[in-house]
Design brief:
The chain is an alpha/beta fold. The chain has 16 helices and 16 strands.
């Protein structure tokens, strides 16, 4: 095949993936430019794959029609592609000679190429395709970005370095920012070390392919893509080295603010029964299900404190399962598209109630920050209007204003230092500033680990010393065990009318009906509608399973149904498995030559049963709400790892040092000045997004630390 025919065939294939009709096709939308940029950028090495597909396609066309692919009419081109799309082996369709062996199964090759085209057609125009936002206009996805407000995170001049701090806090996320600020406001001198960057305003651009919701070619937080691997173990026991954008990595944002910088902001309190799961249900065989050493009433004052000091919008008194509270929310609930009232009607038909979701988002101006301006790219991105409430723009700002808190971004803590008696004395870290990396050691009266469930466990394990050879605080091999995340279930319903107005954030209705009392199911979970889904993510995840992934039917569904599809989803109350865990890989190291985290094991079978139950309830709710068609993917795999961005449980709190890592205040057993304060403390992960409980625990533990300092 000569070069001219190659390029002509490639262009013809592009336009069959997203054909022109009343709206522009792939070529007119600039997808050729997008594909070219990817093949010399993120997808270097895939160019040969593209040309092999093009050449194989042309040979198949000549074998079937005695014409090259570019000489065929659109119906014949589609006929050939449909035939190839059904072939799962690499044998040619027609068997004519000479015929190339496909580089992979034709169906797989077409699926890969269709996704590449969809990326360029439906992602943001700054990626090179979707010229003039033609596809967004076609599906009625809002093209105007919310005006960006100045991000008032001005950091005051940091205090001078000290020979010894009252406390060192490792990790400036949901918990670490609150702990550091609370200690600083109590007059303590605090050093806050954050492995990631302190993002500046220019870092806030909205890239639909590189964000924390869809990290296809990168992300907008941390860690850096190179030099920070992890190891995961598959169902056959084989180890794989993975990077931060790989799903099994379970990347929780590493940046000042942590996940709160880019989270969706759901701010649910756990229910009273969530703290007493073992008492309520009994511990199934093979699980580590246990009660928390604290109850809902112990945490309620701190839930209230988070809601008012960080800022949560919501409506109190509308969830019949909610625990008692001393007062309502500081802001009213955020409204949503009126079309989603169908969910209320569906719930009424099924006999349960719904309520507005509580959100870490200002519904009105609050604490010096503006109200939500309804960006349709909310979850996965920093808020352009600074209306989303995280640790970085609330408590951390307050803590820095005291002059007692020194924040050091790009500071990778390598180990917690102890003396000859095993007493914690400080930490060693590498500060990777603009002038280059510098190894440092700092002493402190107290060390608080708030690096997230995976990295907190990794740091304790990497801080082994002669008196604790298994790792710091790990005499009974508990550190790293019972890693949890959330199995999320999802169902999609095609409604008769639009239920999405394209204005964020999106979630408006939730129910706790299935959080408990589900007849033979341990726990359960919440169900709710979802955030506005980005167009390419909708294409990738939300299309009906029997819809062709390319061609005019695919384009027509996107155009006609994007705003008519309603997603109901939710996380289950996971049953912890002690064999789903974090250990240290003996051979793989990061850029600082530190052994990396190794993640192994899978969810407990009872978690999978609960997930299937909740999935069926999501399907049922959509049917009852009037959906013309409902689709949902049933999990058929018994090996499901669930660390994810809601990772929890590796340093569980408890009263028995043989089965827990810390006491009820986060203090590590056997150490009077070492604390873990983040979701690692979770005994169970609840059937809710975890951020509110992480922050409430942070306030509670910080108060205890202040009393001891």
């Amino acid at each position: 095949m000569d070069d001219d025919t190659r390029y002509q065939t490639l262009e013809a294939l592009l336009d069959r993936m997203a054909p022109p009709d009343d709206d522009p096709g792939a070529l007119d939308a600039g997808v050729g430019t997008y594909v070219g940029q990817r093949l010399v950028g993120d997808l270097q090495g895939e160019l040969d794959r593209v040309w092999a597909i093009v050449e194989a396609l042309d040979v198949e066309a000549r074998a079937r029609f005695a014409k090259g692919f570019v000489e065929l009419g659109a119906p014949e081109q589609d006929e050939l592609l449909e035939a190839l799309d059904r072939i799962d082996s690499s044998a040619p369709v027609a068997g004519a000679k000479p015929s190339p062996i496909w580089p992979e199964a034709p169906a797989r090759a077409i699926a890969w190429f269709a996704q590449l085209v969809a990326e360029g057609f439906y992602s943001d125009p700054r990626n090179g395709g979707n010229h003039r936002a033609v596809s967004w206009k076609m599906i009625h996805y809002a093209t105007d970005e919310v005006p960006r407000h100045p991000l008032e995170f001005a950091r005051p001049t940091p205090p001078m370095d000290r020979d010894e701090y009252d406390a060192i806090v490792i990790g400036a996320g949901a918990a670490g920012g609150i702990v550091a600020a609370t200690l600083a406001e109590a007059g303590k001198h605090v050093l806050l070390l954050e492995r990631g960057r302190d993002l500046e305003e220019q870092d806030y651009r909205r890239d639909h392919l590189r964000n924390h919701r869809l990290a296809l070619y990168g992300h907008n937080t941390g860690p850096d893509l190179q030099g920070h691997p992890r190891v995961t173990v598959d169902h056959e026991g084989k180890s794989h080295v993975v990077g931060p954008t790989d799903g099994p990595y379970s990347n929780n944002a590493m940046v000042v603010g942590g996940g709160t910088l880019v989270f969706g902001g759901m701010a649910f309190r756990f229910l009273e029964n969530d703290f007493r799961m073992a008492t309520r249900y009994g511990a199934p065989a093979g699980s580590s299900l246990a009660d928390w050493p604290i109850a809902y009433h112990d945490l309620e004052p701190y839930y209230d404190r988070v809601e008012w000091e960080v800022g949560v919008s919501g409506q109190a008194g509308v969830d019949p399962r909610a625990g008692p509270r001393q007062r309502g929310y500081p802001m009213p609930a955020i409204g949503g598209h009126e079309g989603r009232a169908v969910l209320d009607e569906g719930a009424r038909r099924l006999g349960f109630s719904t309520f507005p979701l509580p959100l870490f988002i200002n519904s009105v101006p609050y604490n010096g920050r503006p109200a939500c301006e309804h960006s349709n790219a909310c979850v996965g991105f920093p808020c352009p209007s600074n209306a989303k409430s995280g640790s970085q723009n609330t408590l951390l700002v307050r803590g820095l204003a005291t002059g007692n808190l020194k924040l050091v971004p790009r500071a990778h803590t390598t180990r917690i230092d102890v003396d000859a008696t095993g007493k914690v004395r400080g930490v060693s870290f590498i500060e990777d500033s603009g002038s280059g990396p510098t190894a440092k050691q700092v002493r402190a009266r107290v060390v608080v680990v708030s690096a997230g469930a995976i990295e907190s466990a990794r740091l304790l394990l990497n801080s082994a010393h002669p008196l604790e050879p298994r790792g710091l605080g790990n005499p009974h091999d508990v550190v790293g065990r019972s890693l949890q995340g959330h199995i999320y279930v999802s169902a999609y319903g095609l409604m008769p009318q639009p239920v999405e107005d394209g204005r964020g954030p999106g979630p408006t209705r939730a129910t706790t009906r299935y959080s408990h009392d589900n007849g033979g199911i341990i726990g359960g979970g919440i169900l709710h509608d979802e955030f506005v889904i980005m167009p390419f993510l909708f294409w990738r995840d939300a299309l009906p399973p029997n819809l062709r992934r390319w061609g005019l039917p695919n384009k027509s569904f996107m155009r006609d149904c994007y705003r008519r599809v309603l997603q109901v989803s939710g996380p289950i109350q996971e049953i912890p498995n002690p064999e789903q865990r974090v250990t240290i890989d003996p051979t793989v190291r990061d850029r600082w030559n530190i052994p990396v985290a190794k993640i192994s094991g899978s969810a407990h079978p009872e978690s999978l049963r609960a997930a299937e139950f909740l999935r069926q309830r999501a399907v049922e709710w959509l049917h009852a709400s009037g959906a013309e068609r409902v689709w949902s993917r049933r999990n058929e795999n018994s090996f499901v790892r669930t660390a994810g961005q809601h990772q929890a449980g590796t340093c569980r709190m408890g009263t028995d040092p043989q089965s827990s890592v810390t006491d009820a205040g986060g203090r590590v057993h056997g150490h009077d000045n070492l604390y873990v304060v983040d979701a690692s403390l979770y005994v169970t992960n609840g059937g809710f997004n975890p951020s509110l409980t992480i922050m409430a625990l942070a306030f509670r533990c910080a108060e205890g630390i202040v009393r001891r300092l």
